[in-house]
Description:
By secondary structure, this protein is an alpha/beta fold. Manganese (II) ion (MN) binds next to loops. The site of uridine-5'-diphosphate-glucose has 22 residues, from strand 3, helix 9 and helix 17.
Amino acid sequence: MRKAKSEHLPLFETKSGKGLIPFRLFVASTLASICFIFVYRVRFMPAVPLLGNNELEADLGVRWTAWIGLFLAEIWFSFHWLLVVALKWKRIYRTTHKQRLSLRYDEAAFPGIDIIVCTADAKIEPPIMVVNTILSVMAYDYPSDKLSVYLSDDGGSDLMFYAMLEASRFSEQWIPFCRKFKVEPRSPEAFFDRASEPIDDHHSSMANQYWTSIKKLYEEMKARIESPTKLGRISEEIHKQHKGFREWNFVSSRSDHQTILQIIIDGRDAKALDTEGQPLPTLVYLAREKRPQYNHNFKAGSMNAAIRVSSRISNAPIILNVDCDMYSNNSESARDAICFFLDEDKGHEIGFVQFPQAFENLTDNDIYSTSMRLVTEVELPGVDSNGGPCYIGTGCFHRRESLCGKKYSSNACQGEDWTSKNDVKIEEESVDEVEETCKVVASCTYEENTEWGKEMGVKYGCAVEDVITGFAIQCRGWKSVFIKPERAGFVGLAPTKLLQSLIQQERWLGGQVQFFFSKYCPILYGYKKVSFGLQLCYCHYALGAPNSLALLYFVAVPSLCLLKGISLFPKLSNPWVIPFVYVFFGNLIYSLVERLCCGGTCLEWLNAQRNWLFGRITSYLFAILDNILRVFGITKWSFIVTSKVADEDASERYKQELMEFGATSPMFTILATIALLNAFVLVWAVKRFILEEQSLVIDSFALQIILCGLLVFINLPVYQALFLRKDKGRMPSSITYPSIAYALAPCFIALYY
Ligand SMILES: O=c1ccn([C@@H]2O[C@H](COP(=O)(O)OP(=O)(O)O[C@H]3O[C@H](CO)[C@@H](O)[C@H](O)[C@H]3O)[C@@H](O)[C@H]2O)c(=O)[nH]1
Ligand SMILES: [Mn+2]
């Protein structure tokens, strides 16, 4: 119930970001420089070759083509840079007033929250990790009877089910413990890992004993979960513990089974209490039906099944969704989120509240640039200022109705009563009956001839199902907000190998291409539905992949032209060189300052430059190829789940920040080829220009030599992996030899033809 109505102090606040003036000045000067570059390209364009085929004409042809190519690449970069500017032009940051929330509302009036946790593979997403995520959200500082947790297991694994049973038992102890000691974070693994001492000195030895006993209970549970995980199967003994295991008698494989649904803790059950007699959150295990002849739509399908099941069981007006590795690191996130939805003034138009992703397994200098530091600190606050951040698939609180397709209308939503939205639970039916009816909505055929995956729920057919879903919600008139509290809301695991990170980027960028060419194209579909600024922000991501082509040109052609003696940039002594130098180095320095301001290190910045390059010339390129192959029906896209486990050897190298190349992949062939090509050119150029010829010639080629030198510098870890390292993370010889050949071939052609 609403306590006091009169005061309208907002539940959240929005502030503009600082430091925008230097940024805008930098933008203006860069823009001017870009114009000069374009003028230079047009004015000094080499003569158009005639069609004669004598040697001179052929030479002219090469020169002209290289020039035009470079010009096109520069045009593309400038265009994409403008999209970056649109993204960063304004920024807003939000804070909440949780104390006002409790002053104004009874906890009984808080909206219910259904929490959907997705998992897909018990081998690479260990059940104990999932258990920790589940426990962390069950223990939210929020009325327990308002929380329901659904694990949607795409792996359909009895190991996972068993882990949930264990979690449900342990939660009876864990939740009161968290409440009593205000534990943070509420993932037991993370908590016991960090807090080596009992929490409170002032408390008697009783507190210490309590602490130790809970820790022991956790360790025991962990051991019980991990031993069948290692074995890969459930023992007979465990099998007898719960009727739910019988379901697996009918499972032929993880891609062919009936719906398995077990309400492990029934929130309606008066006996479902923790050790202190407080109600427990509802806990449900779901593995939707899978049949080989049906398309399962990966995570999106898994989410939609869980959304429907939850609507039959708890039907909370708010849905939180997290990936199975993203445990709650802040017990107050749920309160943060409802501060937005319940705000009297603006809450009614908010469709979802997005928290950033944070990671606990990053190295000091973020070797694979997986921290998303700039995305969280700069980009998403920028998108937020244009109408709301994208939905990024995890750590997001949705309004159930907006996720399920409802259009925003100011009349219907203003002054809404959240209490009446609660308690649509089916009170009379028994657990078994509820389970039976729910199984139907999680079957393969349920979605046939419905809007699920189209206008309802999470969208199908796109590798960034989250982004496209969020965009459609915004196009239906809803706003979204981005909140980054001091203490991170959710913490998960980032890829720990270079190839994993590249494959992840390939999925994201490929998905973005799909998004751009889909019905929901940010330009066409978003027209007049969202602000122009927001359209540009989405385009910045959606048009990321073509950067690969422009960049590949930049890392290969100027170097090859150096060999051939074709100069593509102004002489060092020529004033026209200034805009080139300004744009290139200005941007580098700006990005360094930006990163330092956001709390990064210089080495982290260097790694970011390296990964920027690596990602673009491999993942981004493959993202385009994937889409071409898919359009021609040659391949189907699939969601490659990122592994959350690493062998000891590799994780040791990861901790030492040694890049991991130990795998055969065409991506590595590209990386090695580009690195070698530039190394060959640099050696040749140093020999020829610096040792043999005079400064006059150097003058003409200075920028090309610098570019080549920088590329060699940034590629140092690649040479190391190719020739110097002996560990398992070195480049396999099946990549080294072909790459040498691929790099030498164009060099010879450039030199001798
Ligand atoms: O068929 C599948 C594949 C994946 N997942 C789950 O999806 C989540 C994300 O998968 P992960 O392999 O960790 O991918 P990431 O690249 O880390 O995921 C990011 O990018 C995805 C879109 O590409 C978003 O859906 C995610 O929320 C976002 O964290 C995990 O919980 C998986 O268990 C499924 O449920 N079913
Ligand atoms: Mn992940």
